[in-house]
Specification:
Residues 1-30 are annotated as: Disordered. It is found in: Nucleus. This is Centromere protein X. Belongs to the CENP-X/MHF2 family. 58% of the residues lie in helices and 0% in strands. By secondary structure, it is mainly alpha-helical. It has a domain at 31-44 and 51-110. The chain is elongated. The mean pLDDT is 76.
Length: 111
């Protein structure tokens, strides 16, 4: 008797193997432009003679990216918890300013 073949439900779609996998750890993620980060940092400095190094700009940019990513994840999570339709569908979820305002206090305390 030949061995049982696994059901088709457990097999991967061969078309999926042709698609390149996106890895967010690579440089595929959206980054905040360093020029924008430098302008934002300079805008908040009191002494106009203060210079900001490239390493500082890069570090602040990474921190801002992490902060914004966490804000969006938390807002989406809260939105899905309050909306039964969003839990069952995988369609695009639209965030509004109110969603971000709701998570802001706890997010600021956590950072």
């Amino acid at each position: 008797m030949p061995p049982k073949r696994p059901s088709k439900a457990n097999e991967e779609d061969p078309r999926k193997n042709d698609e390149p996998k996106k890895d967010l750890t690579e440089d595929h993620k959206v980054k905040i432009p360093p020029e924008l980060v430098a302008k934002l940092v300079k805008n908040f400095l009191e002494d106009e003679g203060t210079k900001v190094s490239g390493a500082a700009t890069k570090t602040v940019g990474e921190y801002m990216h992490l902060f914004l990513t966490e804000a969006v994840y938390r807002a989406v999570s809260n939105r899905r918890d309050g909306d039964p339709w969003a839990k069952t569908t995988n369609s695009g979820l639209m965030l509004e300013v109110d969603d971000l305002e709701k998570i802001a206090p706890q997010l600021l305390l956590d950072f």
